[in-house]
Amino acid sequence: MSVQMQRRLFTVQEYHLMAEAGVFGEDDRVELIEGEIIEMAAIGTRHASCVKRLIAVFSDLERRRAILGVQDPIQLTERTEPQPDVVLLQPRSDYYATAHPMPSEVLLLVEVSDSTVDFDRDVKVPNYARSGIQEVWLWDLEANCLEVYRNPTANGYTSIQRFERGEIISPLAFPDFQVSVDLILG
Question: What is the residue extent of each domain of the chain?
């Protein structure tokens, strides 16, 4: 007789309780994706450099236009709370002190990927689409390009564009703000 094994999926609330109880160490890099606790890959120097460049570029946006978040949680659903590399959020007077941002508050979400590009593209990006996040940028450091996902549906993004070196992109929320692919890739 064969027994089928079942996975135990966690909610965001259970995940937070586990963190408060000390289940995760101070230096543990984990996120909750579709109820599963996923250990995040170590951040390499090129990844860190790209994130620093994004911070520098997006810091030029006026504070009244967006709040810049770096590797902070976003609650997508009851079972999914990723920590994207960079987000631009709708301004809020409490700077999200009372709750993590929800998808409707995300103006732009950015993932920087080197060793995790397949997971980010095949798992995280579809989760962002199902949650209604309007725009996701995936910096693929292996291919040295930017993938831009727009127009979310339950089945994924209907608009996917690829930007190469020498090109300029503007976020949907800030069409007057330009970002150079070359600058971010270094």
Answer: 43-185
Q: In sequence order, what are the beta bridge partners of 111? A: 138
Indicate if the pLDDT at residue 62 is higher than 80: no
Q: Grade residue 1 by pLDDT with cuts at 50, 70 and 90.
A: low
Report how far residue 170's alpha carbon sits from residue 168's, in angstroms, rounded to the nearest whole number. 7
Q: Could you report the per-residue pLDDT of 95-128, keeping only the tens digit for each?
A: 999 999 999 999 999 999 998 999 999 999 999 9
Residues 58, 39: Cα–Cα separation, whole Å: 27
Q: Burial level of 177, CB count in 10 A (0-12/13-18/19+)? A: middle
CATH class of the domain defined by 43-185:
alpha beta
CA-to-CA dists, residue 149 to 30, 41, 54, 172, angstroms: 24, 23, 17, 11
Helix (H), strand (E) counts: the chain: 5, 10
Helix (H/G/I), strand (E/B), else coil: 174:
coil
Beta bridge partners of residue 161, listed in sequence order? 148
